[in-house]
Structures are given as structure tokens and as C-alpha cells.
Design goal:
Length: 301
């Protein structure tokens, strides 16, 4: 029998932490301290925000500016919908955007007034005319659409595509001054989808200017208007001719034909059988010496 000596236990290998350099240890501690400070600041900031809305709330909303079409309640309701913090941290841009959504608002500004007040400066649109169906337009060509019951009565009517509003307004203002010299005012002015211009006046007649040379045609109408007025009461004046016009009278239709016939592929006004101006009156209206060779003026039948 062989005897074996019991195995001798071996001591465990010694394990030691790496020794940090003093400089690295100091940097590590500074990093931990900075992280702890940031976390503490975030927590404290959140706590202060809760206290700010509680102890420094917005208590008063003041409105500056002339407000005629809107009510103060409408503005205050918009502010109340967006008020989420205290006087120091409330997002003023959010309030401003909410107020600008009101149809009548042209511009809006918001500022803080210590200790608990918001001051809102508001300016309203000033409507020049009605626009299309249920809209209004300003002298700058800005289209807005308030509630139907808020549309003022007695305004002229303008129509056209929204992106052409500035041009329609510009011509309404310019042409209105020209017609005023003849004692006329524009009640409606339309730029239709084809680009044709039509207006009605306070004298009760409709003026058709067509799509091209509208400025020239309007000038020609203004020159001819005294003669037209002397001949009777017009119901419709059609200027869509190369160098003339056609007139339909209230109660009876009358057409005057210029050299070259109707422009833009249009026929003469439809309706009852037309009668015509005499040659002398027609020559004065069109500022023509007479019909060209091979043509003749139409006479009253």
C-alpha cells in the first residue's frame, strides 16, 4: 500500500486595485461632482418651474390697440388656450400665433409687464371691399374671411382668384378715380377665370372690358360716355371691340358697331332686334373720320 501526502493548499494569488495617479483621481472626482451638480440643477429647475407657475402666474391680460370688429373676449379666449406657464417662462410666440389666427387680426405683438401682466398689441384689418363669396379684402390686397354676420354692409364687391387680389384692388382704386371724373362709382369689379374684366357702376349699367387692352378700352369708354349719356340711359356697354363699342339701353337695345367688328371672337349683344346710332354720332363716339373704304356704317332700319 502506498501512502500519499495530502495536497498542500496553495495560497491564493494576491489581487490589488490599480493605483490611480493623483491627477487622474482628481479629474474623476471632478467629473462625478459636475454630473451630480447638473442633475441637481435639472431637478431644482423643474421644481422651480412648478413653483413659478404657482407663485408667479399671469393674472392680467391687457389689450392695446383699436379693436372694433373683434371682442375682447375672443382675444382673451385665445390667450387662455395657450397659457401654460408663469409670467417668466410663458412662450409669447405661441400666444402671438394663436391671436393671429383670428380672421380680423392684421398684426399682433405680446410682451411681459412685471409682475403678473401680459400686454397684447393688436391691429385689425381695414376692409376695402367684399371679396368673392363670404370674404373681405384690404387696400393692400389681403384677403380674409370672417364670419358672415361680421361682414359690413355697403361695401363694393370685388371678385377674382385670391392670388390676383392685389391686381384687382389696384385696378379698382385706379379706375375708380378715373370714373369719378365722369360722376361714376364702381359697385362691382370682377376678374373672371378667363381673365376678362367686368364692372357695374352706380349709374346702373354694366361695363365689359374683356381680357386685353383693358386700360385702352376704359379710356375709350370715358371719352365716349358723354355721348352715350346724351343718347339715353345705358344698361350695358360692351368695349370688347377693336376700336368701338356696343350699347344696350334700358328698355330697348341699341348696338353701335366700329370698324373691324367685334374683338376676341365675340358676337354682337344678343336680345331683341338691334337699332343703330346714326353715322354722325358713331363718328364722334369712335373718333373716326368715317368708315374705311368698302365698308359702311349701319343705319337705323
Amino acid at each position: 500500500m502506498r501512502w500519499f501526502d495530502p495536497p498542500q493548499s496553495r495560497p491564493a494569488p494576491a489581487f490589488s486595485l490599480p493605483r490611480l495617479e493623483p491627477r487622474l483621481a482628481w479629474r474623476f472626482l471632478k467629473g462625478l461632482s459636475g454630473l451630480a451638480l447638473i442633475l441637481a440643477m435639472l431637478a431644482g429647475g423643474h421644481w422651480l418651474l412648478q413653483l413659478e407657475s404657482q407663485y408667479l402666474p399671469v393674472r392680467v391680460v391687457s389689450i392695446e390697440g383699436e379693436v372694433r370688429r373683434m371682442t375682447l373676449q375672443q382675444i382673451q379666449e385665445r390667450v387662455g388656450m395657450t397659457l401654460e406657464a408663469g409670467i417668466l417662462t410663458q412662450d409669447l410666440a405661441t400666444i402671438q400665433a394663436a391671436i393671429k389666427e383670428l380672421p380680423w387680426v392684421d398684426s399682433a405683438g405680446v410682451r411681459r409687464a412685471w409682475p403678473d401682466r401680459l400686454v397684447i398689441a393688436v391691429s385689425e384689418h381695414k376692409p376695402l371691399a367684399r371679396w368673392g363669396e363670404g370674404g373681405l379684402v384690404t387696400a393692400e390686397g389681403v384677403v380674409f374671411r370672417p364670419e358672415r354676420h361680421e361682414i359690413p354692409a355697403g361695401l363694393p364687391q370685388l371678385r377674382g382668384p385670391d392670388d390676383q387680389a392685389r391686381q384687382v384692388v389696384r385696378r379698382y382704386l385706379a379706375w375708380g378715380q378715373l370714373l369719378k371724373v365722369r360722376g361714376l362709382a364702381i359697385l362691382t369689379l370682377e376678374d373672371d377665370p378667363r381673365g376678362a374684366w367686368t364692372m357695374t357702376t352706380d349709374a346702373g349699367f354694366t361695363l365689359l372690358l374683356g381680357r386685353t387692352e383693358v386700360e385702352t378700352r376704359l379710356e375709350r369708354f370715358l371719352r365716349a360716355y358723354p355721348e352715350i349719356l346724351a343718347a339715353g340711359r345705358p344698361a350695358r356697354v360692351d368695349m370688347r371691340y377693336s376700336n368701338g363699342l356696343a350699347v344696350s339701353w334700358s328698355g330697348a337695345r341699341l348696338a353701335a358697331r366700329a370698324v373691324g367688328g367685334p374683338a376676341e371672337g365675340l358676337g354682337y349683344p344678343s336680345g331683341s332686334e338691334p337699332a343703330y346710332l346714326d353715322p354722325a354720332t358713331t363718328n364722334r363716339l369712335f373718333n373716326q373720320p368715317g368708315p374705311p373704304e368698302g365698308d359702311s356704317w349701319p343705319y337705323r332700319s
